[in-house]
Write a structure and sequence with these properties.
214 residues, mainly alpha, 76% helix, disordered N terminus
């Protein structure tokens, strides 16, 4: 009888919620993995900044510091998104409890707001769109809002990066660079080391850019 009902009416509310919770856990693991990768790349870049500072290459150190700031902002964004995934999971658990009493799933403003925010995150955008469509059909939320904040968030991230580069340099180099002096002025550096330093700098920039654009 249960299999016949599933064929005629589709999954039960409990089955739908369990499937969504499994997807949420999967996306949470994905964000955890990317945050760990950001930590590794950021640590390597910080070590390179120290080496560049010791060599007197302030310009290259500043470029890498800017990438570190972007890396930190991206990790913060992923952390917030992970919390939103957790919030949706908690709301679904409440939905499950209500469904056992009423037999149906209820509309949830909290789930809709969190889902709209998560759709803007490239790493899980497609999965969240699919889940949101399923939830809309199940009556939990209305159709998705337009993604009007993407550009604003990226511009804000760039502005904050400009403001924080000096502080990052100051912290990483124990006050040698950054707030203690003019970051835009290069210190003397050996010319025969320029190509080697540029290659090393580009390597870490590519690593960080790959993660930040993922």
């Amino acid at each position: 009888m249960q299999s016949i009902n599933r064929f005629l009416y589709g999954p039960t509310p409990e089955e739908r919620v369990r499937a969504w919770q499994a997807k949420l856990r999967q996306e949470t693991r994905l964000l955890d993995r990317e945050m760990r990768q950001l930590d590794v790349s950021s640590a390597k870049a910080k070590q390179s900044v120290k080496q560049l500072a010791n060599k007197g290459d302030v310009k290259s150190a500043k470029i890498l510091a800017r990438e570190i700031v972007r890396c930190n902002k991206q990790k913060d964004r992923l952390s917030v998104s992970k919390a939103r995934l957790g919030s949706i999971g908690q709301q679904l658990q409440q939905q499950l409890a209500m469904a056992k009493v009423t037999g149906t799933l209820q509309k949830s403003t909290e789930i809709m707001k969190a889902s709209n925010s998560l759709v803007r995150l490239p790493q899980i955008s497609q999965s969240m769109r699919e889940m949101s469509m399923e939830m809309t059909k199940a009556g939990i939320m209305e159709e998705m809002m337009d993604d009007v904040m993407d550009m604003e968030e990226d511009e804000e991230l760039e502005e904050e990066a400009d403001e924080e580069v000096d502080k990052v340099l100051f912290d990483i180099t124990n006050g040698k660079l950054g707030q203690a002096g003019a970051v835009g002025t290069e210190l003397p550096a050996a010319e025969n080391k320029e190509e080697e330093e540029e290659a090393e700098l580009e390597k870490y920039r590519q690593q960080l850019s790959g993660l930040l654009s993922g």
